[in-house]
TrEMBL record, chain A:
Keywords: DNA-binding, Transcription, Transcription regulation. It comes from the Bacteria. GO terms for molecular function: DNA binding; DNA-binding transcription factor activity. The gene is yisV. The keyword Lipid biosynthesis does not apply. PANTHER family: HTH-TYPE TRANSCRIPTIONAL REPRESSOR YTRA. This is YisV. Residues 7-75 form the HTH gntR-type domain. The keyword Transit peptide does not apply.
From TrEMBL, chain B:
The lineage of its organism: Bacteria, Bacillati, Bacillota, Bacilli, Lactobacillales. SUPFAM superfamilies: P-loop containing nucleoside triphosphate hydrolases (SSF52540). Residues 3-228 form the ABC transporter domain. GO terms for molecular function: ATP binding; ATP hydrolysis activity. This is ABC transporter domain-containing protein. Pfam families: ABC_tran. PROSITE patterns: ABC_TRANSPORTER_2. InterPro entries: AAA+_ATPase (IPR003593), ABC_transporter-like_ATP-bd (IPR003439), P-loop_NTPase (IPR027417). Keywords: ATP-binding, Nucleotide-binding.
């Protein structure tokens, strides 16, 4: 994962799963490891993993089927979330311009770090 | 059910080894206890378990104060790794003893763990490797089926594979049985991911009590080079310098506010990068004023630089 910021570990794990969904490691209908298995794999506190799963559930990435497990869900595009993200991007682009980052540098960055399919996260 | 330690103080040979220790230990919570050598970790455990009689203070299990006469073996498990009766006992003797003392002790669970790690049942304690002994302590703790387990330096002297095995057992017990752990360790990397909370013991007291996930959201670690080494006053005030490499300062902000962010930006540093904050960084932050740390380099932050 590229982002080195001091994220809470639950947030980092939720991002990682989202990233894996975007890059096709998980597809809709796949069963995620249980909280216990994921805690083992990531060597994380089970409470932290449970919190990441709750976050993913409320973000519409996964669904919990009682007695069956946790599954990757077909997440519909969220209009309000997209609006917020576009606003953040506009603000970022303005700041980037002020700091001297050129359009060409941004294009190069996108080309180098993102495959065409994988829009959001490297 | 919670375990509450209140204002616990223990003097040994007229020296206070632990002073006014208070904390509440919640069910299912993994708590790390860290402190430098001699901070009082083992003494705290021994006093909590009434192996030492406290000079003052109480320990309560579910609001019931415990004393030397209380049998709390159904609640809390602790093995003194430095001072126990095991020496050359065969495992069967150790198991018999735990079966007597811990009412819920499941010998079958113990033997199945031992078998899983291919430790012969006929072994004697003293003939086992450090890693095997650590496994046996964990197997005893888990087989006792108590809600609270104290582990004193469970990773000490273990190779990386054995450390991972111990961590795995802790995660399993927390996930499957909601077992609470209080773990003292110098292995901060091992504690980092698995702890909900960390108590930092310093000068015989609990100096900090951190919920790690909240702290990770609030705190930041920045690597920065300031122009002419001019550190903005707010950065000096709010930040703790944990490492200096040439011109590069590593600064931890426990509360990274917008004001701090603005001060950093306004200073137009030559170089600035945020790094992931680890438990090691948090611990360093609490130790920078120790006399053997940084060897006076913190002056860069605490005295105005001349340019």
């Amino acid at each position: 994962m590229q982002n080195p910021r001091s994220l809470a570990y639950y947030e980092r794990l939720a991002l990682k799963v989202k990233d894996q969904v975007l890059s096709g490691i998980w597809t809709v209908g796949d069963k995620l490891p249980s909280v216990r298995e994921m805690a083992q794999q990531e060597r994380l506190n089970p409470n932290t993993v449970a919190k990441a799963y709750r976050q993913l559930e409320s973000d519409g990435v996964i669904e919990v089927r009682p007695g069956k497990g946790t599954f990757i869900k077909n997440s519909p595009p969220s209009a309000p979330q997209q609006t917020v993200l576009w606003q953040q991007l506009s603000a970022w682009l303005i700041n980037a311009g002020t700091a001297g980052i050129t359009r060409q540098q941004i294009d190069d960055y996108l080309d180098t770090n993102f495959s065409p399919k994988e829009v959001v996260h490297p | 059910m919670t375990v509450s330690v209140s204002q616990l103080t223990k003097r040994i040979a007229n020296r206070e080894i632990i002073t006014d220790i208070s904390f509440t230990w919640h069910p299912g919570e993994i708590t790390g206890l860290v402190g430098r050598n001699g901070a009082g970790k083992t003494t705290l455990f021994r006093t909590m378990m009434m192996q030492y009689i406290p000079d003052s203070g109480t320990i309560q299990v579910d609001q019931q104060p415990i004393s030397q006469n209380t049998d709390f073996a159904q609640h809390i498990f602790f093995v003194d790794s430095q001072d126990n009766f095991f020496s050359s006992s065969p495992l069967t003797t150790i198991v018999d003893w735990y079966t007597l003392v811990y009412p819920a002790f499941a010998a079958a669970d113990f033997w199945s763990t031992i078998q899983h790690f291919a430790i012969p049942e006929s072994s004697r304690w003293s003939s086992l490797s450090k890693g095997q002994q650590a496994t046996i302590l964990m197997a005893l703790a888990l087989a006792s089926h108590v809600p609270y387990i104290i582990l004193d330096e469970p990773f000490a002297g273990l190779d990386v594979i054995a450390r991972e095995e111990v961590t795995k057992m802790i995660i399993d017990a927390a996930a499957d049985h909601h077992t609470a752990f209080l773990i003292s360790s110098h292995d901060l990397e091992e504690l980092d991911g698995i702890s909900d909370r960390v108590l930092i013991l310093k000068d015989h007291r609990i100096m900090h009590d951190y919920q790690l996930e909240s702290l990770r959201e609030e705190a930041r670690k920045i690597q920065v080079v300031f122009r002419h080494n001019q550190v903005p006053p707010l950065v000096k005030k709010e930040g703790t310098l944990i490492r200096v490499t040439g011109q590069v300062l590593e600064i931890v902000f426990m509360h990274y506010t917008e004001a701090v962010d603005a001060a950093l930006t306004a200073a137009q540093p030559v170089f600035s990068e945020e790094l992931p904050l680890t438990l090691t960084d948090i611990f360093r932050t609490t130790a920078v004023h120790d006399t053997d740390y940084l060897m006076g380099k913190e002056e860069i932050l605490h005295e105005p630089a001349q340019s």
